[in-house]
Description:
In chain A, strand 5 and strand 6 form a beta hairpin. Chain A is mainly beta.
Amino acid sequence: MIFIHCPHCGDRNExxxxxxxxxxxxxPDDPDxxxxxxxxxxxxxxxxxxxxxxxHWWHVRGCSRWILVERNSINNELRRTDEDSxxx
Amino acid sequence: xxxxxxxxxxxxxxxxxxxxxxxRHASPKPSYDVIIIGGGGHGLGAAFYLASQHGITNVAVLxxxxxGGGNTARNTMTxxxxxxxxxxxxxxxxxxxxxxxxxxxxxxxxxxxKRGMTTVLMSDRDLSxxxxxxxxxxxxxxxxxxxxxxxxxxxxxxxxxPERLPIVGGxxxxxxxxxxxxxxxxxxxxxxxxxxxxxxxxxEVTDILCDAQxxxxxxxxxxxxxxxxxxxxxxxxxxxxxxxxxxxxPIESVPxxxxxxxxxxxxxxxxxxxxxxxxxxxxxxxxxxxxxxxxDPYPSYSQRGTPQIPEATIAxxxxxxxxxxxxxxMRQWAGVLDITYDNSPIISKTEVDGFYVDVAGSxxxxxxxxxxxxxxxLIANNRPDPLIEAYGLERFSSGRLILERASYGxx
Lengths: 88, 411
């Protein structure tokens, strides 16, 4: 990985960014409607994808905006990055 | 063949030409009483204890690659028990003790070396945390001691003079040992093979077969094998393997890096921990400085890791030990840890009958013999020993987590 392309700042060193989780791992819309087992699954069972996944990253030591990053967790190769409308 | 001084001398006279292989390379039979997935220390150990303590010898260990080629080969060999919470403290204390007789039990020299660990404390907060840790762990029999600056200087004469750094004291933990990690896998493989266990290398499990009663077997790259009891001792891919049985394990895979310098003559006897920097290092028996620090800041399966970690590790060590400035790097690598939300291991039954897991050790090398003994006991008797009751999968739904800070898999 080493460099992450921030759509606002360009190629920046990866240590300027903080990992913010897989986009598939989203908070359920209605927690009260869930069983304990489903809630437990949401809290503790992260997707932990092996291969390409879309993730939230926070450019915390840069422009401080959230971005979307497509990363291959096998070799940390990056495909494309985008603005993160979910977290803005 | 029993390894002994006499045998060594005899084979020495014959130029070491006649040593038999340490274990049989088996092809899988169509059926076993127990199958263990994963031929690292934990898996081979479980097979050995099933055979030696429970009389179950119709056992196979299936390994995707070669014996001890996974995280057993990627850890930094340090065996410590500075854990804070009662369940962890008890378990890790017993784990350290389980190493002491291992060379004898296996008739294989695992090169256990009692080094002691010295922790350098660099703030008042570190010091008060340390006092709490020392007091807590002493309740469970671990021997920790707060040491003064003078003693710290005596133990670590190579460190930068404490007056130049904000060093406030240290902890000495004499029970810390290191062991040759490869030898642990080889020793277990040899001893288990001798008792009749089949060790099958290059055999990847591609599916876990179940019916309404539970596990019925596994599909592998070397064909289908049936069994009613299946143990999993996989590191790095525990989630993927367990998912084959529709068991969702609450783990995330994060690289933990280590690195070594070129070998030099003996210069450092203790394992050194720099608390404020989350960094530790020691000198191996081969003479290399072995260094490591916190897990990577994001999950990945890359066995290389992010370059920020080695940079920070080396910077930290050079701050306190400028004497190592001219040391040369030889290798750097990462082992992929399966980390649970509470950094504590899972040694447990699952919702599938006959499927047992020993995963997420978060630096599980130090618990190898005890975890293997417990895993074997769990498989043989289908109920957890009191020592591992707290490590069951139920803790995630009941909320009885063991939120341990003393692991390197910190979040």
